Amino acid sequence: MIKAKKSLGQNFLIDKNILNKIVNTTKIQDKTILEIGPGTGNLTSCILKKNPKKIFVIEKDEELIVDLKNKFNNQLTIINDDVLDVDETILFKDKVIVFGNLPYNISTEILSKWIINLKNNFWFESLILMFQKEVADRIIAELNTSNYGRLSIISNWKLNIKKICDIKPGAFYPRPKIDSSLLFFSPKRNFVKIKNPNNLEKITRIFFNQRRKMIKKPFNQLFNGDQRVLDKLKINLNLRPQNLSLNTYYNLTSEYENLIS
């Protein structure tokens, strides 16, 4: 049996019920599929049974690549690279469905990279991704809750997000110490236009730098107390960062871009 590498955050999914639940999340017959971190190929096998048009996998571990080649022959296009270094926007002709049991240590980095690099034309049809439950809770957190923050705001900007299920440690080998969650992401048709997504990162970073304090200081830092912006967006400076809605942050970013342009 191939030994999981802790340095790569590897936990191989082995529960057949969960594997089937994942592949049944969306229709994949005749679709182009991208799987991130296929590991020992358990999910890959389930995907292939659904007759996709083509399947790409991104795997960094060269030992696992040898195993995947032996197991699947020419059924896969294997990309031996770090997913953080791959530009998916130029890789595919068709929109793809992405499956990923993401390494816990870089899962938020992967998701943030995909969102920040999104153009008006999405390169994917949907994302079916597994996260540490604690991270998933932050992604889907609602306004006025303790989990609501930068990750919630950035993730929900261009994507609709739905939780599919929680997954216990026993579904993996080796067993992680925490629960996981499976999330389904699909593109939004309408979203607030932001010229440079890095500005959304900046706005949320400054506002949530002191999340327990009122937003007067970060607002003044960015907008120099501009009353016009306060009136336009109906913002109360006595609120705290977690009290401002998703759209308020997107509109704040748009106003900030107008200010600096």
Brief descriptors of the model:
single chain; 261 residues; alpha/beta; Rossmann fold; Helicase, Ruva Protein, domain 3; 2 domains; 7-stranded mixed β-sheet; two-stranded antiparallel ribbon; 35% helix; elongated
Terminal CA distance: 57 Å
The assigned structural class equals alpha/beta
In CATH, the architecture of the largest domain is 3-Layer(aba) Sandwich
Q: In total, how many beta strands? A: 9
CATH topology of the largest domain: Rossmann fold
The share of residues in helices is 25-40%
Low-confidence stretches: 4-9
Q: Helices and strands, in N-to-C order?
A: EHEHEHEEHEHHEEEHHHH
The shape is elongated
| Cα gyration radius (Å) | 20 Å
Q: What strand line-up does the widest sheet have?
A: 4-3-2-5-6-9-7
Largest β sheet strand count, sense and barrel closure = 7 strands, mixed
CATH class of the largest domain equals: Alpha Beta
Q: What is the chains' assembly state? A: single chain
**Count of discrete domains:** 2
Roughly what is the average pLDDT, rounded to an integer? 92
Fraction of residues in β-strands? 15-25%
Number of helices: 10
